[in-house]
Amino acid sequence: MAAVTEEQVETVRGLVASVPPGRVTTYGDIADAAGLSSPRIVGWIMRTDSSDLPWHRVIAASGRPAVHLATRQLERLRAEGVLAVDGRVPLREYRHTF
């Protein structure tokens, strides 16, 4: 992966922070909005610098949370009114657009 700049990190952080309660976005949506070449870059940034952000509002394009975070992430989303069906968030209903 190419070096990630501080500007890119801050752009991703700003986009994640802008997702309102009760909505979700995908790693790909954020990558597109930030002008990044891959959703994996967003994943890397989220893994290393998102503890103070609403990280639970960012999910995979499949609508499923990361396996290791699924229970906690779906609980947080449910508390905001985002209801998953069989562990998958229906993106047509809850997707935030930038």
TrEMBL record:
The keyword DNA damage applies. InterPro entries: ATL_DNA_repair, MethylDNA_cys_MeTrfase_DNA-bd, MethylDNA_cys_MeTrfase_DNAb, WH-like_DNA-bd_sf. One of its GO terms (biological process) is DNA repair. The keyword DNA damage applies. Coiled coil: none annotated. Pfam families: DNA_binding_1 (PF01035). Gene3D superfamilies: Winged helix-like DNA-binding domain superfamily/Winged helix DNA-binding domain. Residues 11-82 form the Methylated-DNA-[protein]-cysteine S-methyltransferase DNA binding domain. It comes from the Bacteria. Keywords: DNA damage. GO terms for molecular function: catalytic activity. This is O(6)-alkylguanine repair protein YbaZ. It comes from Mycolicibacterium vanbaalenii (strain DSM 7251 / JCM 13017 / BCRC 16820 / KCTC 9966 / NRRL B-24157 / PYR-1).
